[in-house]
């Protein structure tokens, strides 16, 4: 269990737009939550310190009014605290109010909320990578010569064709086709391929043709085995533009904050791929699946896919994604030391609004009296107003029908003037109660009725 204290001040003023119901609201955003006490009626001079404790999935918040300057007016506040780094789960929060002046604790309200487990947040799909697309991934810097597996030569074609180049890849190989409008009739390309850094170079040089006549031809070449990965294809010194080649399947993981992004480069998926990602957490293993919901067509091509999941609590997880087999990788959110450590991110005390009384009456009251209790009968809250003709030590207390002390609302030395104090009776049983205003030499009683 850990405890946080935060102090903040106020600016007291009126406003026209405000909530009208005393309530507890919870806003969940990823793994942070904002707990707000709306329309909290307090003394105008209130200055709050938050005291937050969390035990398992129970959150307890105390709104401690530390002000010793009791002002002769009441108004409303919106009070909030934002907590971060809470793990997924179901939570129950209770909010209490305390006052240095009243020296009591009142129950303000409660709420249930859920921080969802990690889920899909965002995804990307490059589309079929048959056309050129630049990228920043790099190979390990070495140069690798690739063996020629097969080649074809159509011979001279009866028709004229347009120059073109096309390719496709599979788990460990590359097929490249090349059409040329006019080459010597005895042109026989000398194919060569190699990997240098992150680029796959392919050349088809003239092997000393001697013919003076030309024609259109189609050629093809296959290379392998090629290490799995993602490469830039440079054919004949970029004659046809650069394009991306993916061989096999590679998975990489990055984490930012409490989010995890899975990137999957795959050589041979359905050309009309429409990925549907799903992810769920079981203990420390995060399972991921990708289902193709697109129309099945008679071709495959490479894709660059990514899916971002979150939020995760801090810790180390196993990624169970079939493309990673035979070994599932791990990823870490935050540091091990901070695992499951929650924290207070921020807090806020609104302006004082909806004043229920104005500045103190400058006329000294003539008598020691309870001026009224309103509303009466009441449901949960009522306000007790009283007058003091001179400075003295006073106590405002609540008693039941049997004369037993229920609670003390105020115990302090006050100057002459008009005052009000609020009784929160939400946790009291229905019935008849008595308000007692006790001074140094006299006391007054007033009957109130609590109806629920």
Keyphrases for this structure?
five-stranded mixed beta sheet; 452 residues; rod-shaped; Immunoglobulin-like; 3 domains; mainly beta; 33 strands
Describe the structure.
The chain has three domains: 3-118 and 343-349, no CATH class; 121-310, no CATH class; 369-450, Sandwich (Immunoglobulin-like), CATH 2.60.40. By secondary structure, it is mainly β. 0% of the residues lie in helices and 59% in strands. The chain has strands spanning 3-7, 23-29, 32-43, 48-55, 58-65, 74-84, 89-99, 104-115, 119-125, 143-146, 148-153, 164-169, 173-184, 189-196, 199-206, 214-224, 229-235, 243-247, 249-256, 259-270, 275-282, 285-292, 300-310, 315-320, 330-333, 343-349, 369-374, 381-388, 392-399, 405-414, 417-424, 431-438, 443-450. A hairpin with a 4-residue loop joins strand 7 and strand 8 (104-115). It is rod-shaped.
Quick rundown:
The chain has about 450 residues and is an all-beta fold. It has strands at about 5, 25-30, 30-45, 50-55, 60-65, 75-85, 90-100, 105-115, 120-125, 145, 150-155, 165-170, 175-185, 190-195, 200-205, 215-225, 230-235, 245, 250-255, 260-270, 275-280, 285-290, 300-310, 315-320, 330-335, 345-350, 370-375, 380-390, 390-400, 405-415, 415-425, 430-440, 445-450.
- The average pLDDT score comes to 81
Describe the biggest sheet? 5 strands, mixed
Number of contiguous helices: 0
Distance between the termini: 36 Å
> Helix content range of the residues, please?
under 10%
Return Rg in Å: 38 Å
Tertiary shape: rod-shaped
Write down the domain tally. Answer: 3
- Structural category is mainly beta
Number of strand elements:
33
């Amino acid at each position: 269990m850990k405890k946080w204290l935060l102090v903040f001040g106020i600016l007291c003023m009126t406003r026209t737009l405000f909530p009208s119901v005393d309530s507890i609201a919870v806003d969940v955003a990823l793994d942070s939550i904002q707990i707000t006490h709306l329309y909290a009626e307090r003394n105008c001079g209130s200055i709050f310190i938050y005291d937050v404790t969390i035990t398992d999935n129970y959150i307890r918040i105390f709104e401690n009014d530390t002000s010793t300057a009791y002002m002769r007016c009441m108004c409303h506040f919106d009070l909030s605290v934002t907590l971060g780094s809470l793990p997924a789960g179901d939570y129950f929060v209770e909010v209490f109010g305390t006052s240095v002046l009243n020296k009591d604790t009142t129950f303000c309200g409660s709420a249930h909320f859920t921080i969802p487990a990690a889920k899909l947040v965002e995804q990307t799909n490059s589309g079929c990578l048959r056309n050129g697309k630049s990228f920043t991934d790099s190979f390990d810097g070495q140069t690798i010569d690739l063996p020629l597996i097969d080649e074809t030569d159509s011979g001279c074609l009866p028709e004229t064709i347009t120059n073109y180049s096309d390719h496709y890849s599979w788990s460990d190989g590359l097929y490249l086709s090349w059409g040329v409008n006019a080459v010597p009739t005895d042109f026989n390309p000398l194919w060569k391929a190699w990997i240098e850094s992150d680029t796959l170079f392919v050349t088809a040089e003239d092997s000393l043709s001697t013919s003076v006549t030309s024609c259109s031809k189609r050629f093809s070449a296959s290379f392998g085995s090629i290490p799995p990965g993602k490469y830039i294809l440079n054919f004949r010194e970029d004659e046809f533009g650069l394009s991306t080649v993916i061989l096999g399947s590679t998975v990489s993981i990055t984490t930012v904050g409490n989010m995890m992004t899975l990137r999957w480069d795959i050589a041979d998926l359905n050309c009309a791929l429409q990925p549907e990602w799903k992810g769920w957490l079981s203990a420390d293993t995060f399972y991921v699946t990708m289902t193709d919901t697109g129309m099945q067509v008679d071709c495959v091509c490479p894709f660059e896919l990514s899916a971002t999941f979150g939020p995760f609590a801090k810790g180390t997880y196993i990624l169970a994604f079939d493309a990673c087999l035979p070994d599932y990788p791990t990823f870490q959110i935050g540091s091990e030391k901070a695992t499951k450590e929650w924290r207070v991110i921020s807090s806020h005390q609104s302006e004082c609004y909806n004043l229920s009384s104005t500045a103190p009456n400058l006329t000294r009251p003539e008598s020691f009296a309870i001026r009224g209790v309103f509303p009466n009968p009441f449901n949960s809250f009522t306000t007790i107003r009283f007058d003091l003709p001179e400075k003295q030590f006073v106590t405002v207390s609540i008693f039941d029908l049997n004369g037993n002390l229920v609670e003390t609302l105020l115990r302090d030395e006050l100057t002459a003037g008009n005052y009000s104090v609020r009784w929160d009776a939400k946790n009291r049983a229905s019935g008849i109660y008595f308000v007692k205003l006790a001074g140094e030499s006299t006391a007054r009683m007033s009957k109130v009725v609590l109806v629920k």
